[in-house]
Write a structure and sequence with these properties.
The protein is 42% helix and 19% strand. The protein is of the alpha/beta class. A 7-stranded mixed beta sheet has the order 2-1-3-4-5-11-10, sandwiched between helices. Helix 6 packs across helix 7. The longest helix has 20 residues. It starts with 11 loop residues before the first strand and ends in a 12-residue tail after the last helix.
Length: 335
C-alpha cells in the first residue's frame, strides 16, 4: 500500500496479548498481525508480549514496550477498566493505543478493531432457541467478567432469551460467569448446573468455544453430549471437530486474519501520518464516554458441517487436515 517507505526503520510497535488459555491469541491473531506488518512495513520491528491473564504484568509489559521506544501499542486488554492506565501512560508519551478485540475504557483509546459482539451473542442464543422446545431449560455459560466483550455478548444473548424467560417459553436453569475465560471454571459451572438441575438441561448458551468444550465434557460424563445444542465463539479446531461430531452445534466465527490485518494497517497509517477514515468507518463510545474510531469486521454464525466447511474455506489459519484428526476423521465431512 506504499506506506512502508514513509516510516522510520527504527520504529517499533508492540502487540500486547492477554493470555494463552485461548490458543487463538498466539496462533491466529499475533501470527496474522506479525505477518501483515512484515508485508506492508517490513522495516518495522514488532514486539509481542503475553501477560498470561495478569493485569499487573500487562501494565509492566506496556511500560517495557514504551521504554524500548514503541511508537504504537496494540492492546488486547485483560481488563477493560484497569487497562486504561496503559492507554493513559502511552498518551503521556505521545503514543497512540489501538484496542484490539476488547475495548479499553480510557479517553486515550484511539481505535477499536472488532466485530459486532452484541449480534454474535444474539446469534448464539437464537441458535439454541431454534433447536429447543417450549418450556425447555437452558444453561448460560458467560465469559470473563473483566472482559468488556463478555458483557456485550451476554447482552446480545439476553436480548433473545429474556422475552422467552419472561413468557415461560424457555427456562433459565443456571447461569454463571467464567473468570479469565478459564475452561476449568466453566467445567465446574456446568457440573454444578447438571447437579442442581438433575441433568434436566436441553440447551447450553456458551459464550466461547472454551466454555462449550467444558460443558460438553461435563455432559459426556452424563451421556448427554450430542443431544443438547451448544453454542460457541472463535471456531477453534477443537470446536469444529466437536461440531462434526454433533456435540457442539454452533460457533461464531470472525475472520481473525482480517482483524489482525486491519490493526496492522491502522498501525502503519499512524506511524506514517496517513488518513485512516477508510478503515475506521464508524465512531463508538467506550465505557468512559470517549469517542473511539471503530474499525469493524464481519462475523458469521457457523452451524454444523456446513459451518465447518465455510470456516475452512475462509480461514487461512485452519485446514481440513487439521480438523480431520481423531474421532472427527471418521465423519462424512472428512471422507
Amino acid at each position: 500500500m506504499g506506506t512502508a517507505a514513509t516510516v522510520s526503520a527504527a520504529d517499533m510497535v508492540a502487540l500486547l496479548l492477554p493470555e494463552n488459555v485461548n490458543p487463538r491469541w498466539e496462533q491466529q491473531d499475533a501470527a496474522a498481525f506479525v505477518a501483515k506488518m512484515a508485508e506492508i512495513a517490513p522495516d518495522i520491528t514488532v514486539e509481542v508480549f503475553n501477560a498470561n491473564n495478569d493485569t499487573s504484568v500487562q501494565q509492566r509489559q506496556a511500560e517495557q514496550a514504551l521504554t524500548q521506544g514503541a511508537k504504537v501499542l496494540v492492546v488486547i486488554p485483560i481488563d477493560g477498566e484497569s487497562s486504561a492506565i496503559i492507554a493513559d501512560t502511552a498518551a503521556e508519551e505521545g503514543v497512540p493505543t489501538i484496542a484490539y478485540d476488547r475495548m479499553i475504557n480510557s479517553p486515550n483509546t484511539k481505535f477499536w478493531v472488532q466485530a459486532d459482539m452484541f449480534a454474535t451473542g444474539a446469534a448464539q442464543a437464537q441458535h439454541v432457541v431454534d433447536n429447543t422446545q417450549e418450556g425447555d431449560t437452558l444453561v448460560l455459560l458467560k465469559g470473563s467478567p473483566t472482559d468488556p466483550n463478555a458483557a456485550v455478548i451476554a447482552a446480545g444473548q439476553v436480548s433473545v432469551l429474556q422475552p422467552l424467560f419472561d413468557s415461560g417459553a424457555r427456562k433459565m436453569g443456571y447461569e454463571n460467569w467464567t473468570p479469565g475465560w478459564d475452561p476449568a471454571i466453566a467445567r465446574r459451572s456446568m457440573d454444578q448446573a447438571l447437579t442442581q438441575l438433575g441433568n434436566d438441561v436441553q440447551g447450553v448458551v456458551s459464550s466461547n468455544d472454551g466454555n462449550a468444550g467444558a460443558a460438553i465434557e461435563a455432559m459426556e460424563e452424563q451421556g448427554m453430549a450430542g443431544t443438547v445444542p451448544v453454542s460457541g465463539l472463535d471456531c477453534t479446531v477443537q470446536a469444529q471437530q466437536l461440531m462434526l461430531l454433533g456435540k457442539q452445534t454452533q460457533c461464531g466465527w470472525r475472520p481473525l486474519h482480517e482483524m489482525a490485518a486491519a490493526a496492522a494497517e491502522v498501525t502503519v497509517r499512524l506511524l506514517s501520518g496517513e488518513d485512516t477514515a477508510d478503515l475506521a468507518t464508524e465512531v463508538v463510545q467506550n465505557g468512559v464516554g470517549a469517542d473511539v474510531a471503530f474499525v469493524p469486521v464481519d462475523s458469521y454464525s457457523a452451524v454444523g458441517a456446513d459451518g465447518v466447511a465455510y470456516v475452512v474455506e475462509n480461514d487461512p489459519s485452519i485446514t481440513k487436515d487439521m480438523i480431520c484428526q481423531g474421532d472427527a476423521a471418521a465423519t462424512d465431512f472428512c471422507q
